[in-house]
Design a protein that fits this description.
Elements (H helix, E strand, L loop, with lengths): L1 E6 L3 H10 L6 E4 L16 E2 L10 H20 L3 E2 L3 E5 L5 H14 L5 E4 H7 L9 E5 L3 E3 L1 H14 L3 E3 L4 E7 L2 E6 L2 E10 L5 H6 L8 E11 L10 E3 L10 E4 L5 E4 L3 E2 L10 H14 L8 E12 L5 E4 L6 E5 L5 H20 L22 H10 L6 E3 L4 E2 H9 L7 H8 L12 H12 L25
Parallel strand pairs: 1-2, 1-12, 2-9, 5-14, 12-20
Antiparallel strand pairs: 3-8, 4-8, 5-7, 6-7, 10-11, 11-12, 13-16, 13-17, 13-18, 15-16, 19-20, 21-22
Helix pairs in contact: 1-5, 1-8, 2-8, 10-11, 10-12
Length: about 475
Amino acid sequence: MYDVIVIGAGISGSTTARELSRYQLKICVVEKAEDVCCGTSKANSGIVHAGYDARAGSLMAKLNVQGNQMMEAASKELDFPFERIGSLVICCAKADIPVLQRLYAQGKANGVQGLEILGKEAVMAMEPNITAEVVAALYAPTAGIVCPFTMNIAYAENAFENGVEFRFHTEVKKIQKVEDLFEIETTKGLLQAKCVVNAAGVYADRIHHMLSAEPMRITPRRGEYLLLDKTAGAHVSKTIFALPGKFGKGVLVTPTTHGNLLVGPTAVDIIDKEGTDTTAEGLARLRKQGGDHVRNIPMEKVITSFAGLRAHEDGHEFMIAAAKDCENLIDCGGIASPGLSSAPAIGKMVAEIVVEKLSPRFNTQFYGRRKGILSPARLSYADRDTLIRENPMYSNIVCRCEMISEGEVVDAIRRSLGATTLDGIKRRVRVGSGRCQAGFCTPKTMEILSRELGVRMEEIKKSGSDAQMILGKNKEWL
């Protein structure tokens, strides 16, 4: 029996859980996957949008600007990477300058600070690799980049440390209202709650319609990406956007907080809510459209491709409200781009709705800070030497591409809501994220997981319950 059950451990569910942990509430986050950050939140651009793109007066615009303004403080409190690098929207035809002017006016109406429309010379001086066809650009200095995995994990860890329970491998199959309580049938048994927060990503419409007749339709919008090696990371210094179109902001080119270069996404509406496959057509489109605005992108340095799904609502608006026909069902749906940028504000808004319903007392024991995994690479040589003398595991390099030590991997496993899979390790400390894409570090990482979790090597998964790495043993190899 809980006061609040949050469905979904992505960025919206995790920020909501952390905000709710400020109050004396019994809270549980249920997640069908094996970890936090396994859906939309794990596969996106990592962009903190300035807020000029959303329609003036919309909830999306309001929360985008608020979330952007909250991001720096949140990154310091919870120790996740965030850089305010700015962005440019590139215009290559004089006939399209009114589009920039519309975005500028919309941004000013939304409260975005520092917007400028720059001429060709100013743009080229700022970004030498921009196409020579540029005639103008909208510059937004408040835009930034964030590590989406670390941000999601940081909010979840802090929520957990403040008393929130997390249940993984727990899929919601049915919900019904019995008098004043919700009875939630899951793959791990029956749960009860006074209040339900629906933060189920692309499945938010299915959860919503288990209880409410109000219309909600979420369309999975697949976005494919190309990730380039760190040797290409300085090709641009800001996030470079094309002019927005029918399906969103178009293909962007951006540095990442870890020093790579990212090109994407495509935008294709699909039916399959698990359709995160990449396509030859989509990747070819990225190679072409990325080069339309940024010259000489070294595509030979692509180290991987991936795809994610955005939870696109028909009206392209965040659906954050209490259901009118089901008391204490709080929807947090349609959280497509700029959902990551808006996340701190989304969590605050959802929590305020819940608090209004339940009127809880403040949690006087709430502690809002979290320390991330220690990285020896960030230490001085003297401090690194001291660390290694105290704990020799920090001298054993597991991932050569990213220079990640055994000490960091062990920390990722042992800490709150620790990793239990290879992908869980990857999202926390980037083992397997480098040039070789886990070609060398996988066996050693599996050995560490096996040792720390006390399970056989055959039980270690890449992700989820079906992604086995070892199917058996051949006695001739032993």
